[in-house]
Amino acid sequence: MDQSPEQINSKHTIEPHVLMFPIPFQGPVNCFLKLAELLCLSGIHVTFLNTQHIHRPLLRHTQVLSRFSRYPNFRFETIPDGVEHETPVSVDRFPEVMEGVDAVTKPLFREMMVSGKFSWKSERPVTVMIPDAYFSFAVDVAKEASVPVICFETMSPCCLWTSFLNLPTLIEAGEVPFKGWFSSCLITR
Fold it and tell me: What contacts 148, CB < 8 A, 6 or more positions away?
């Protein structure tokens, strides 16, 4: 019979181990890397889980390995994502990337957390998960794996409001693009 996290904790102390899982785009990955560095400075073990789609260009075009080489408590892991691109995919292909994550990454991630390399059965189990807030499936997996979860939102409230909540409504209502006297005038103030 499998042991619960409480049973394992009662036998010995487990060091904090945070699993960070950003959506596979440069902006969110950069935000997560900054948070990861702060956690590493605090002495917390951090595993940074990237999809293969973003990890290859991250290693090829940045100094991320040398930046994090001074933290022995940091490591990268990758997970397949179903995206077959060598170069980073722009945000206009967001739905394609997220479909790949949904079809390929989600079941593999569940396996890693519930009974695989990050589970309570592993040598260094994850004690807290910090997924991107867009990955709602990660919350379900965290509950199933009995791991506390803190969702990290990398989008600014302004971006969220204009891009997802309000802008489509304004376009639909014909308010955007702006019409009227100011659309053809140079604004000088």
Answer: 127, 128, 129, 142
Q: How many whole angstroms separate alpha carbon 178 and alpha carbon 171?
A: 10
Chain center to CA of 77? 12
The one-letter amino acid at 113: M
> Which residues does 113 contact at the CB level (< 8 Å), separation at least 6?
19, 119, 126, 129, 141, 142, 144, 145, 147
Give me the phi and psi of 107, to 5 degrees please. -65, -35
Helix 136-145 to helix 106-114 angle (10° resolution) is 20
Tell me: the pLDDT tens digits for 127-151?
999 999 989 999 999 999 999 999 9
Closest CA to 24 of 129, 98, 125, 108: 98
